Amino acid sequence: MNNIRNIKDIYNRNARWYDFLVKPIEFFLLRKKRRKLVVPLSGKILEIGVGTGANLAYYRNDISFIGVDASPEMLKIAQRKAERHGISADFREMDAENLEFPDGYFDAVVSTLTLCTVPHPVQAVREMARVCKGGGRLLFLEHGKSCIGLVARLQEGKSGKHFQKHGCRLLSDPLNIIASAGLHIKISKRFFLGIFQQIEATASHTHI
After folding, report:
1. Cys-Cys with 53: which of 2, 73, 78, 197 at CB 3.0–4.6 Å?
2. Can you give the pLDDT at residue 6?
């Protein structure tokens, strides 16, 4: 399994080309989902694995926003996007499994395409829950193993090389990860061949 240093190295190398490489899937599959996910949010918002800032075009500009990522090169690009979209944002290099914030600090915590990458995703979700207010919103837009047999088998054949190159687990199970962290799942929807999942959960803090 990749550790946080390996993940950092992979995404530092790929930062310059990342937006270009993911542009087709962002345009055709994810942009509307991202908008729906974050537009309603208000107050203090944390996004883990913020990357190059794909969600920044959709946040309201009156929120208090902090974005964290393991890759400083990705964060540089995110900072430029925030300035372009008129969002006052605080970007920090940080490990999602060890968030440097007090308990119950945020009104909502967002993770998009992040659980497939962090070395210990259950711990990352527990940290998301810890820093979110009791009853606050935890929002996920993630990908993983398809619920369609043929698609899942194709993913299985590519998973090893994909992980070595991109540090990304094609066979991740986001719903199980979130449930294993002790969160209450309110909404779970699959789309695009059962690969992607949009999930909303709440943090009760009874498990932390």
Report:
1. 78
2. 83
Nearest to 151 by CA among 175, 170, 176: 170
Residue 82 placed within a domain: yes
Ramachandran quadrant class, 86 (left: phi over 0; alpha: psi -120 to 50; beta: rest): left
**Domain residue limits at 38:** 4-202
Count of structural domains, the chain: 1
End-to-end CA separation in angstroms for the chain:
26
**CA of residue 110 relative to chain centroid, distance:** 6
Which residues are within 8 A (CB) of 141 and not within 5 positions of it... i.e. 6 or more apart? 30, 33, 34, 37, 111, 112, 113, 196, 197, 198, 199
What predicted TM-score, i.e. pTM, was given to this entire model?
Answer: 0.92
Element (H, E) at 174: helix 174-180
Determine, yes or no, domain membership for 207.
no
> Mapping DSSP to helix (H, G, I), strand (E, B) and coil, where does residue 115 land?
coil
